[in-house]
Amino acid sequence: MLEPVMYVGGVFKHNQIEELVEDLGGYILQKNVMQTEVVLLMLVPINDMDVVEEKARVLLGKITRAPLSGSEIATVAPTLAYHHLPHLDCDVAEFLRKKGAKTNMVGLARGVGKRICQLTAFERDLINEHDVAMFILGNYEHCIIEKSKKLYEGIDIPVIVLGAPELKKEDVPNVTAYVGSFGRILHQMRHSEELKTLDRLAEVTGNVLDDVRKEIAKDPLAIAPVRIKKELEEQIPELIDSLHPLPITLQMKGVRVKLPYDEYHERIENIEFVEGVKMKEVADVLPSKMRNFILIKARPKSETGFLI
Q: Which letter does DSSP use for residue 139 in this model?
């Protein structure tokens, strides 16, 4: 098992912790250098955490668990209108990014009204490409409950709902988790109580993703998504020149590759690993609903019969 963690420390000698993690069989997911400070998102073998934490102490850095690392989350607003897409949606998306997740904002075409709200087939398929769907709703308890009865039909991934009233998960139909104290906030969330609410959201989201990891562990993936990312970086040089943010976006069960599907899918399917196995034998290479990008979904061991 690989544990998602974040390292925060000085730039000086930070390469030592990168080399240590890679030597232990872990991976560096993302690296951000900000003047004299560096932030590393990493996957570390759980049995070697003590070694990495000791090295961090020597370098005067800090290791914290980052359960949102390596996930892609859809933050969904009922519409793109101002009263449905205020500062709150941006604050939520940005805060989750700071915790290690990749977020995409989705505004629904027909999300207005508790009786007539619905998803189009395109919106449903696009949301299902993510690891978690986070619906950011409004202030009224009755509206949130009524919308939850049918708005999430066809959503196969965990659903987290945000709203103003403090409700229990059992009160809101068809959801994995509910977080209150949100709603239509028309200012930037920067006060202490609001930041605590965002921290609570990150904690709930981390718990949901941990449950996903436990389910994956029952039938492990034939290839780890981070291994797919590493091979793509080494064998598809066009990704180095891509101007997209995160040209290879990690997900819990695969990756999103920001290259045209028609042009690159055959090359990606025929990528060969050192074990002599090709990508198409351990993963499905699919067209994404997002800008004709490529979606790679690793197959479970029960389907392939082996792990690499």
A: S
